[in-house]
Amino acid sequence: MKEQIIQKSDENVSVDISQLNEKIKQESAFVDMLQAEMGEVIIGQKSLVEGLLIGLLSNGHILLEGVPGLAKTLAITTLSQTVDASFSRIQFTPDLLPADLLGTMIYSQKKEEFIVKKGPIFANFILADEINRSPAKVQSALLEAMQERQVTIGSESYKLEEPFLVMATQNPIEQEGTYPLPEAQVDRFMLKIVIDYPQKNEEQLIIRQNLQQIFPQAKKVITPDAINQARKVVSEVYMDEKIEKYIVDIIFATRNPQDYNLPELEKLISYGGSPRAGISMAKAAKAYAFIKRRGFVIPEDIRAVCYSVLRHRIGLTYEAEAENVTTEEIITSILNQVDVP
After folding, report:
1. Tally of structural domains, the chain
2. Would you call the peptide bond into 163 cis, given omega within 30 degrees of 0 as the criterion?
3. Domain of 258?
4. pLDDT > 70? residue 284
5. pLDDT per residue as tens digits for the range 309-327
6. What is the 3-state secondary structure (H, E, C) of the chain?
7. Weakest-pLDDT range from 51-65, 208-222, 293-307
8. 19 and 229 in contact (C-beta within 8 Å)?
9. For residue 70, pLDDT beyond 80
10. Which of 33, 131, 147, 253 allows an S-S link to 221, with CB 3.0 to 4.6 Å?
11. Inside any domain, residue 103
């Protein structure tokens, strides 16, 4: 393969694309094994599995929305089994307290002193089931742990072990007795994945699989240390300046649609993506390229992750809600209008 050297104008560094491609192909070999093992347990739901892998490889957290029974819980349980990592499932309820999540100080009569009893947050994979069923103080405790990667109990701070992935689920069909996540907190999630019902043939396989006496179990195929190493390699995936500008244009189109010949969106968007949206899109696109065994990001990678990155970061006006306009429709309009490099 002919070598291709790319020199970035604003950085005194050159990138050997062919060499990087070979490195990515070798380092990403485990992705196929992970997907194969998850495919043994999870039927269909390709976007869910890809989203989990993107979050895992780019060190981001995932907000998952879908009606009950779509394998949300099973998906992250299966992922934790394939990575040989610790897993905690936390059922969020209105009476949950931050201490139930983070841990607390308890008095030891034997030692005659207070000792720390760590909570379920101290695991590699956290499933925050129905996060919108708990009040704001519990949600903020979780989101602080997600952002800072540490927990403070008493006067001591404790680092959370890497990899650390939170998948929070929320049920879109039931709003009674729930505490919707504030927009500023939702922004902490790298991706918001909306999953739908399976296809007919997939559902038939699901029924058949669940009627078997032995339910398939995923095998351990990778260690947490290998995941941490893969994350370093993902950060090396090459992103051209034109791709960076493409990301910036998409984000700015959510804020100032009139500057991109989209004046009709101005009355539908109350606020656009934050700088964190651009960072998340770049990281997710690199992880997506890694999953596709490529050492460089192409515009199709941006378009593939754009919906998951932006759908929870665009605020709709009352007018948009009255007209039943969705954030997905707005993102589609932006992608159709912004120039592709």
Report:
1. 2
2. yes
3. 1-41+236-341
4. yes
5. 999 999 888 998 898 889 9
6. CCCCEEECCCCCCEEEHHHHHHHHHHHCHHHHHHHHHHHHHCCCCHHHHHHHHHHHHCCCCEEEECCCCCCHHHHHHHHHHHCCCCEEEEECCCCCCHHHHHEEEEEECCCCEEEEEECCCCCCEEEEECHHHCCHHHHHHHHHHHHHCEEEECCEEEECCCCCEEEEEECCCCCCCCCCCCHHHHCCCCEEEECCCCCHHHHHHHHHHHHCCCCCCCCCCCCHHHHHHHHHHHHCCECCHHHHHHHHHHHHHHHCHHHHCCHHHCCCEEECCCHHHHHHHHHHHHHHHHHCCCCECCHHHHHHHHHHHHCCCCEECHHHHHCCCCHHHHHHHHHHHCCCC
7. 208-222
8. no
9. no
10. 33
11. yes
Instruction: Kindly report the CATH number assigned to the domain that includes residue 122.
Output: 3.40.50.300
pLDDT in tens, 194-220: 888 878 887 888 888 778 777 777 788
Last residue of a domain, one of 196, 211, 226: 211
Is the domain of 71 the same as that of 34? no
Question: In whole angstroms, what is the distance from residue 312 CA to residue 190 CA?
Answer: 9
Contact between 55 and 193 under an 8 Å Cβ cutoff? The reply is: no
CATH number of the domain bearing residue 27: 1.10.8.80
The torsion angles phi and psi of 124, rounded to 5 degrees, stand at: -75, -40
